[in-house]
Write a structure and sequence with these properties.
It is built from 4 helices and 4 strands, in the order αβββαααβ. Helix content is about 45%, strand content about 20%. The longest helix has 18 residues. The structure holds zinc ion.
Amino acid sequence: MSDELQDLYQEVILDHSRSPRNFRRLEAANRVAQGHNPLCGDNIALYLELEGGRVKDIGFQGSGCAISKASASILTEAVKGRTPDEIRRMFDRVHDLVTRGEVPDEDLGKLAVFAGVHRFPARVKCAMLAWHATLAALEGKDQPVTTENPAE
Ligand code: ZN
C-alpha cells in the first residue's frame, strides 16, 4: 500500500469516526442487536429495518474507538438496500480484509479503507464489531453479541 493511499484511508476513517453516518436510533427498526467488545470498550446498538427482503434503513448508536465507529458508519452506508445474503458475503470479505489484508477482486468501495487493520491484530475486533452486530440483527438474535464469543 502506498503512503498516499494509506493517508487517504486514514482520512476516511477519521472523517467517519468524527461525524458518523446514520448515527441514530431507528424508530422503524424491526431488528435490533447490541454488540460489545470488552477488549477495547466498544459498545454498539444496531437498528435495522428489513422490508421486502432488503435493508430499507439502518442506524446505530454507541461509543467506542475511532475504528469501531468508522467501521459502523461505513457499514451502514454499505449495507443499505442489500439482502441478508449479500450482507453475509460482505461480512466474509471484510473479515478477510481486516484479518489478512486481502483485498478481494470485487470492489469493496469505502470498506477497503480497513485494509491496514490487519497489521494491528487488537483492532480487528473493533473493525468487526458492527458486522457481528449486523449479522446478529439479521438472524434476529436477542442476546447481545460480544467479540469474545462471536456467534459465527
Ligand atoms: Zn475499539
